[in-house]
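Technical annex, item 7. During the second reporting period the consortium partners agreed on a shared format for inverse folding records so that results from different sites could be compared directly. Each record opens with the tokenized structure and is followed by the designed sequence. A conforming record, contributed by the partner at site C, is shown below for reference.
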């Protein structure tokens, strides 16, 4: 009897111990799972917080671009006022040597008067450049010619000056190049007139009076140029590089053009603005003074860009707020 009671009591204790161990193990696993759940929940909430902040990044970026356009507009207004003020000054009579960098900066956008002679044989054509007349667009080129000194005029320039004489159509350029090519040929290679001049009649031979030998030197005509001091253009990434060896000029590079013309690289460069064009010689067409003042992007354009960026910033910020704002529970 005693043995039976002891056996039964042992079984009961073992069962209680197993239950206690299982309960302790269950509590430990529960605590571990609860800790992991809380950790993953905190990480998820942190990621959600960062993703919400990222929704406002486009609005901040577009707002910054709009503010930058305001600063650019103010700079353009100041630069336009500077150019207008310089162009309103009295023209300078230029007879000096090539200016230094400091002198060139002080002459920028100043009107100058230059006397000299155009060296047509060293003209350079930059282009193509389009020009619209009465709604019709025509391709052409800017012609840049060295203005060289002349000894017959004491007011003449003392060193060559590069002059952008204005725009010419393609047909005018082709004709000019043809004439320059013929002028460089020897006399025995130049085209002659009709063969009627070589009549073999003895009567014509003896009756023809000898003609005096005429001077074949070209007539040099001094010119007075009113221009604005300028500089090299800044081409975009889409404009090809100049090729002086092939006489292809896509943009105005003053040192390159001066080197191709055989004159110093620091030669003064001016843009002709003389409006007294001859009806018999309509080309080249000088530049308009207003075109020298203008920028490709004017202050009004910057203002339009500002309104665009600010409107876009307001729109994307509003969308971000709607996305972040918690929705009301439906009843």
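Designed sequence (site C submission):
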């Amino acid at each position: 009897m005693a043995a039976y009671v002891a056996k039964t009591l042992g079984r009961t204790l073992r069962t209680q111990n197993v239950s206690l161990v299982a309960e302790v193990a269950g509590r430990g696993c529960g605590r571990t799972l609860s800790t992991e759940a809380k950790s993953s929940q905190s990480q998820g909430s942190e990621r959600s917080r960062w993703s919400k902040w990222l929704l406002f990044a486009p609005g901040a970026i577009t707002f910054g671009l709009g503010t930058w356009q305001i600063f650019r507009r103010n700079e353009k207004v100041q630069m336009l006022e500077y150019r207008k003020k310089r162009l309103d000054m009295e023209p300078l009579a230029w007879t000096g040597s090539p200016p230094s960098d400091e002198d060139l900066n002080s002459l920028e956008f100043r009107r100058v008067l230059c006397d000299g002679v155009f060296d047509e044989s060293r003209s350079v054509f930059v282009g193509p450049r389009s020009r619209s007349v009465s709604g019709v667009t025509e391709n052409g080129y800017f012609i840049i010619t060295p203005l060289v000194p002349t000894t017959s005029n004491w007011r003449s320039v003392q060193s060559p000056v590069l002059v952008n004489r204005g725009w010419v159509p393609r047909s005018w350029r082709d004709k000019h190049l043809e004439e320059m090519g013929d002028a460089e040929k020897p006399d025995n290679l130049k085209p002659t007139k009709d063969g009627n001049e070589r009549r073999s009649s003895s009567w014509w031979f003896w009756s023809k009076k000898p003609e005096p030998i005429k001077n074949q030197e070209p007539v040099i005509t001094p010119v007075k140029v009113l221009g604005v001091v300028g500089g090299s253009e800044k081409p975009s990434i889409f404009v090809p590089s100049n090729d002086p060896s092939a006489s292809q000029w896509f943009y105005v590079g003053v040192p390159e053009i001066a080197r191709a013309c055989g004159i110093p690289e620091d030669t003064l460069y001016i843009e002709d603005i003389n409006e007294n064009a001859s009806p018999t010689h309509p080309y080249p067409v000088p530049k308009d003074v207003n075109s020298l003042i203008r920028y490709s992007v004017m202050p009004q354009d910057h203002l339009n860009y500002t309104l665009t960026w600010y409107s876009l910033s307001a729109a994307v910020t509003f969308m971000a707020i709607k996305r972040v704002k918690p929705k009301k529970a439906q009843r």
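The CA atoms of residues 255 and 265 lie 4 Å apart. Residues 2-54 form the longest helix (53 residues). All partners now use this format for quarterly exchanges.
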